[in-house]
Amino acid sequence: MLVERGPLALKLADVATAAGVANASVIHHFGSIDGLHAALMERMVGQLIAEVLAIPDKGGVREDQQEAVFHALFEVFERRGAARLAAWLELTGEWRRITHIRDAVQSVVVRRASFGDVNPQQAQDLILISVTLAMGAGLFGHALAELVGKPPGHAREVAMEMLRVFHAAQVAK
């Protein structure tokens, strides 16, 4: 529903109907539409973090693992609606309610730094630029690419190339 309609059009009653529960149950659990938005963002981030942390356990070449992380990040922000929801939370001031994201990001920083090729500060910067680029591509990459006559996935490709270059520079330091 979030991907189809966007956060502004998401209604508690519609969520209740889709979940097959009473509207009062949804209100009791989330408290408000803002609470639902925050819970959705926490869930998306939690799933992304779990996916990212599991990638190195699958083995393979470090560059392939980093590429898999980039793809997972862009997938969540572009196709699963995280960019639109995160933007809405920021615009409404509700982003501050999602305090566990700091801890989740820190776990990725620690894990990434444990590989030994970047320090924690570089890992934080890599996460910062990665999320910023994924957010931009998810919010308006498709539309901007179309406006300048590029194919739909072009903004994502350019952003991912920037990430590869930035990552290589961090590792080379």
Which keywords apply here?
single chain; 173 residues; mainly alpha; 9 helices
What is the molecular shape?
globular
Number of domains: 1
Quickly give the structural class: mainly alpha
**CATH architecture identity:** Orthogonal Bundle
Mean pLDDT: 85
- In the CATH scheme, the class would be Mainly Alpha
Task: Please summarize the sheet with the most strands.
Answer: none
Low-confidence stretches: none
* Individual helix count: 9
Q: Classify the beta-strand content into a percent band.
A: under 5%
Task: Determine the CATH superfamily.
Answer: Tetracycline Repressor, domain 2
| Integer-rounded radius of gyration | 18 Å
CATH topology: Tetracycline Repressor, domain 2
How are the elements arranged and paired?
Elements: H1 2-5, H2 12-19, H3 23-30, H4 33-54, H5 62-78, H6 82-91, H7 100-113, H8 120-147, H9 154-172
Helix pairs in contact: 2-3, 4-5, 4-6, 4-7, 5-8, 5-9, 6-8, 7-8, 8-9
Please, could you describe this protein's structure?
Helix 4 (33-54) packs parallel to helix 7. By secondary structure, the chain is mainly α. It has a single domain, classed as Tetracycline Repressor, domain 2 (Orthogonal Bundle). The mean pLDDT is 85. The longest helix has 28 residues, at 120-147. The protein is built from 9 helices and no strands. It is globular, with a radius of gyration of 18 Å. It is 75% helix and 0% strand.
